């Protein structure tokens, strides 16, 4: 799940020059024409800024040309991808993978472990229901609840948990949550809510609840489906106001009562890539259900704007300006503010039964760019990790360049499973793991490698991974020979990187990897992660809490149980130990908050989707 909060960046950086797109020849005349074109855009932007567009003026040099199309620039990476091997310490397909037929591998449940996860969910839910019922968020140490705004709650925890209650077959708990939605839930709140979070958590939760109730074996529960759809339509109509910007890129905030989009004043009115481009699964499914394609078209326009820009090998900066639809010079990264854009490219293609090829094309291009520019490998153990590119000026000649930052957010750990899902297409094609083509083998090696490096970050005193891990680059020869990664020391007494806040991304990838390959190691790793949560995060009075420092035993618990603990982390762990016929991947996709949506045949396909 994307996290829109900014993270401090590391100090371990290497200067590299900006790369030209590799793999194709670019004619010099074309480059010169592009240069002239972007120079013209620079003049236009300057005039606009002089006319009063303060956001554009604040950032300066908004165009991507100086960063992404400098003819003399060449990227320097630590790795190569020659087919089945990765870099100097190649990873190959192990003997654990099982041939995947159409429909996916048939896997049996581990009943004992599945029950343990269900018990943890009940322990969490009962505490919330007892101490914070109806509140948006739950503080397990103080046993209190709180809302996102003073205008009142909008069902953050309850709606976010509806589909999990159904998946875990907790019917009495579900019925009480349904009654609250029917009698108490109102979106007529005169306050600013985050557009992205409201969409993925609340709209996604309502749509998933509608789908799962409409297909439930109980006719009584089936009768609840219209309730959730009506609530989703109400919320969806209110969210449309976020798309009122001049460009169609949604504003970061939305007043649910006035239906006005609200710019992000704290970030000079820009939106993040993940915020703008991770609303599509929800809005397109809402259009499919209602026949009103205004939601679909608003969401699709965002992707069309992104594709129309000169993004480099499919990877893009994390900030985009809703005023003019242009990217802002900023970091290229796969963690906070960037992550779910890449996740949704593949899932949009899968959601509409692979009938919108533009999303597969964009996904393949982006994964190629990631493999080319954002992948590193450690010297000590050959761990594959992701890194970030930060815009900078070269210290020698002040030319535009990039700084490579070997920083991997826990948020990035979704990517390993996503790479593997892209190969199997959710079980919609046969996969023989020992006979993959070159691109598939690259994707599998990198995907599996990211899962393994994410698991390596669990090798801490608590067995839990930090919020941010810094990987050691080869240029740091002495350190690189002795360790793969480390946690930055605290900043002015505040430890940020070393926290664990019950995030789901690693177990999400373990679930997808296990369902796709049948390799039992992924279940074993998932059980180890769950046991660490049980040991250090369980609160004796009820609920679970994040911890302040994964390297301290016993760790200090944080007074917060994130809603994604119920909506994502425990749901993915439960499904990891469940049989594969329950929520099969060839018939379902998960939004970035793990809400379950069906694959469907689209009745509307735009010219963009097939371009």
UniProtKB/TrEMBL annotation:
Entry's Gene Ontology BP terms: carbohydrate metabolic process; ERAD pathway
Record EC number: 3.2.1.-
Cofactor: Ca(2+)
Pathway: Protein modification; protein glycosylation
Stretches that traverse the bilayer: 43-61
Disulfide bridge positions per record: 413-454
Superkingdom of the organism of origin: Eukaryota
Annotated GO MF terms: calcium ion binding; mannosyl-oligosaccharide 1,2-alpha-mannosidase activity
Coiled coil segments of this chain: none
Annotated segments matching region Disordered: 1-21
The name this protein goes by in its record: alpha-1,2-Mannosidase
Organism: Kwoniella pini CBS 10737
